[in-house]
Amino acid sequence: IPGPRAATTMTKKMTERARALGVEFLLETPVHKIIMEDGRAVGVLAKDKDGGEIEARAKSVILATGGFGDNPAMIKEETGYEFGKTIFNFAIPGMKGDGLRMAWEAGAGKEPCTMELMYQLPDNMNHFILDGAFRQPCLWVNRNGQRFMPEDQIGNTTFTGNAITAQPGSVAFSIFDSKLLKKYKKKGPDIVSHVHPHDLYDHFDEQWERDLADGYESITQADTIEELAQKAGIDPEGLAAQVEEYNEMCEAGFDEIFEKDRHYMQPIAKAPFYCCRQNVGAYGSLGGVKINHRTQAMTQEAKVIPGLYCVGTDACNIFGDSYPFILSGNTMGFCLNSGRIAGENAAAELDEFEY
Q1: What are the start-end ranges of the H helices in 106-196?
Q2: Which helix (H) or strand (E) holds 11?
């Protein structure tokens, strides 16, 4: 991936090139059915913004509809997560799973659907400063007050999202004290995010006070650990015992439980204490349609469906159940390359097939 926000530039340039080649774009014209004749995809049926039916015939159909991140019912049915309760994924408008439904109706085989896990705050774009400020290797616990992973790994959103989903209630809590916050404000974060602003802590107090006043439920502040636990919904005895054990290990300079990097072993001891509840998130859904190396849709028995291609997240089954965060941009890379592969193979068919 070239860099942050690269998709905007690429989309603009590709659109300009397509229009120069004479491609016609029909906006507000959702496709609802693939036309199948003699086992081959030969076009689509769509409705325009006025409800008029459009029949578009073609020698190939390429599905690229972005999955079902904006379809809570489908998320529950296909993955078991409940949108707004156990998962807070990006819900890009229009990502309803229509491409998957149409492909399956046309006879395409079904692959397991997953969510591209990470973690984030509910409505995180309106709380972006806090979302980034608490992504630090401080003290992370579950509802029982117990640590559940080495906090120096929380910068890997896939690792952390998978760890959080396995915790009671699929939630976690990141906690730091006033001394650690003072350090972050003065020296910057321990883990620098390439997504969040570099000057997070310059705006922390403003965002914190505003969100507290607005009653944002994900954040808690208290003068004692016991009070913090009660307000945040953490087991008070469990958290008190964990903080005591953790602080002892910080003093000793070694994490006996997870062998967390010693540089990040900083005690939670000076009031006031700050807590932020972390939820399972996702960039969207992954996979669902069985394809081959040419991105041709295949039946459940792995037989090619002539004329039908599927690309992007609708067909991205290569990651298993976890997005490989170690090389960011994987999903965009798959979308770009699967689209290119489909286009090349569809174009190659033009001289091989006649109505």
Answers
A1: 128-133, 157-165, 178-187
A2: helix 6-20
In order of 23, 55, 164, 314, the CA distances from 47 in angstroms are 19, 9, 42, 21
> What whole-number distance in Å separates Cα of residue 33 and Cα of residue 267?
59
CA 336 from chain center: how many Å?
Answer: 18
Tens digit of pLDDT for each residue in 153-203? 998 988 999 999 999 999 999 999 999 999 999 999 999 887 888 889 999
N residues, the chain: 355
Q: How far apart are CA 154 and CA 163, in angstroms?
A: 10
- In sequence order, the 6+-apart residues with CB closer than 8 A to the CB of 206 are 129
Q: What is d(CA 336, CA 197) in angstroms, rounded to the nearest whole number? A: 27
| CB distance 72 to 83 below 8 Å | yes
Q: Are 169 and 175 in contact (CB under 8 A)?
A: no
pLDDT digits (tens, 9 = 90+) for 52-82: 999 999 999 999 999 999 999 999 999 999 9
- DSSP assignment of 192-241: --SSS-TTGGGSHHHHHHHHHHTT-TTEEEESSHHHHHHHHT--HHHHHH
Amino acid at 277: R
